[in-house]
Give the backbone structure.
Amino acid sequence: MKSGTVALLGRPNVGKSTLVNALVGQKVAIVSPRPQTTRHRIVGVLTEARGQVVFFDLPGVHRPLHRMNAQMMHLLRETVAEVDVVVQIFDASQPPGHGEAFVVQLVRQLASPVVLVANKLDLPASRRHLAERLAFYTQRHQYAAVVAVSALSGENLERLVEHLFSLLPEGEPLLPSDVTTTQSERFFIAELIREALLERVEAELPFTTAVWVRQVEEEEGQGDRPLLRVWADILVERESQKAIVVGRGGRMIRDVGKAARERIERLLGVRAYLHLQVKARPGWREKPHVLAELQPVEGVWDGGEG
Ligand SMILES: Nc1nc2c(ncn2[C@@H]2O[C@H](COP(=O)(O)OP(=O)(O)OP(=O)(O)O)[C@@H](O)[C@H]2O)c(=O)[nH]1
Ligand SMILES: [Mg+2]
């Protein structure tokens, strides 16, 4: 049996979380078209007859301008240094720039094998420029393997998994075979609310909002679907942003709540009531106690149903 850890490293928005979800075969990480969607280390587990891969989805590599972002980059560096294999992923539909060169600098400092993944192969711009964009990386680092995939369509993912299993050490599974993620249900609920929010807000709001689940109460529901009552705060930086998130006549917050509730119900196999409140917390991204509250509490969890 093969067993080990794999970290996903790359710029924001290249498709790390989409790829982890596709490889695990279940949504464990939220995805959005906004950069810096992932703010923590999210565990996704793939268990097969040939072994187990524990994936660490990570924030995208970016220049940190706030304490929160510095913590994100610290976690990222720490994680890539300790895993068995690193998957360096880039968006093949975009020309490489300084950011991509910086990611290469990071992997050049690592002792572990690095698999280079060109993602978004389904986009015509990726196919057109694939060879030259791969060369940008392969001229700068010796990769253990190179694969072009589409995390969205699933193209070539099996090849990537083959490479990963071949690079992982022999060993027994690290986690029980039915576990797909280790984040607590409460953290995942906060993330699903944030995902619904990220789809609906623009400009600086994706960066200045956070979701904190204050309380979850479980009651007996109908059939085998328990009823979850969730009280959550959406934090923003300023009163003016609060007005945007609430929306005219409360429209925006209602839409966010509805979308989040549907996802929570589908993914956790529950019925849910959400009580959302928007609160202005100036400077929350700099405050250690707020950042500590937003950490994913690890609790081994099999990822529910969907
Ligand atoms: N066309 C296409 N889009 C993709 C693919 N993979 C991801 N995307 C899209 O790219 C955007 C970013 O995807 P994420 O998975 O959130 O990217 P990420 O690297 O995790 O981003 P951060 O968490 O912000 O670092 C989303 O709109 C995805 O739907 C792909 O293979 N093809
Ligand atoms: Mg992500």
Q: What stands out?
A: The radius of gyration is 20 Å. The longest strand covers residues 210-219. Residues 184-301 form a domain with the GMP Synthetase; Chain A, domain 3 fold (CATH 3.30.300.20). Residues 10, 12-18, 31-33, 35-38, 59-60, 119-120, 122-123, 150-152 surround guanosine-5'-triphosphate (ligand 1) (CB under 6 Å).
